[in-house]
Automatic annotation (TrEMBL):
Residues making up the signal peptide according to the UniProt record: none
Biological classification of the source: Eukaryota, Viridiplantae, Streptophyta, Embryophyta, Tracheophyta
Family the UniProt entry places it in: Belongs to the calycin superfamily. Lipocalin family.
Chain positions covered by the region annotation Disordered: 161-183
CDD domains in alphabetical order: lipocalin_Blc-like (cd19438)
Recorded GO CC terms: cytoplasm
Protein name (database record): Lipocalin/cytosolic fatty-acid binding domain-containing protein
Length: 195
């Protein structure tokens, strides 16, 4: 497993962040097993996943986030990069442009890898304000014991795990081109109003 180190969160508490993350091994597809609901995802989203690909510069990651809502595929693309290139901590910045149908407004957020197992099969991802949390897995389902261990770890890091919402995942997962795509960003506008 990548080493872990304590780092001071903005709230003043200590948070464990992975050190020495093997970025190449972290690339690929991750399925969202659970997360805190957020305005940038449809409330009824399912089969949510992220696909990461290291770009030629070796420092920038292409990010493709996908979810399905009302039979349509919603997605947004962006980039991720280390918050501090000289640090070995797995603290990244992610940048997306909104709204997804006319990407002109840059939005930057934190992406901290709090835990990844030795085989890079599941991960716990958060951010310093503890307002967002994701449990990710390489498969569409996760062993319940492992899930509970990750929830407990998040709780130890100061997250209110009562906010965690399990993400419905189909097995096998849908293909990106198997459903119509929401090109108008309807889900994004609805999410602004809590729908």
């Amino acid at each position: 497993m990548a080493a872990e180190g304590k780092t001071t969160a903005k709230s003043g508490g200590q948070m464990t962040v992975v050190r020495g993350l093997d970025v190449a091994r972290y690339m690929g597809r991750w399925y969202e097993i659970a997360s805190f609901p957020s305005f940038f995802q449809p409330r009824d989203g399912r089969d949510t996943r992220a696909t990461y690909r290291l770009l030629e510069d070796g420092a920038t990651v292409h990010v493709l986030n996908e979810t399905w809502s009302k039979g349509k595929r919603d997605y947004i693309e962006g980039t991720a990069y280390k918050a501090d290139a000289s640090s070995d901590e797995a603290k990244l910045k992610v940048k997306f442009y909104l709204p997804p149908f006319l990407p002109i407004i840059p939005v930057v957020g934190d992406y901290w890898v709090l835990y990844v197992d030795d085989d890079y099969q599941y991960a716990l991802v958060g951010e310093p304000r503890r307002k967002n949390l994701w449990i990710l897995c390489r498969k569409t389902s996760i062993d319940e014991e492992v899930y509970n261990q990750l929830v407990e770890r998040a709780k130890e890091e100061g997250y209110d795990v009562s906010k965690l919402h399990r993400t419905p995942q189909d097995d096998p997962p849908p293909e990106s081109d198997a459903a119509p795509t929401d090109t108008k960003g309807v889900w994004w506008f609805k999410s602004l109003f809590g729908k």
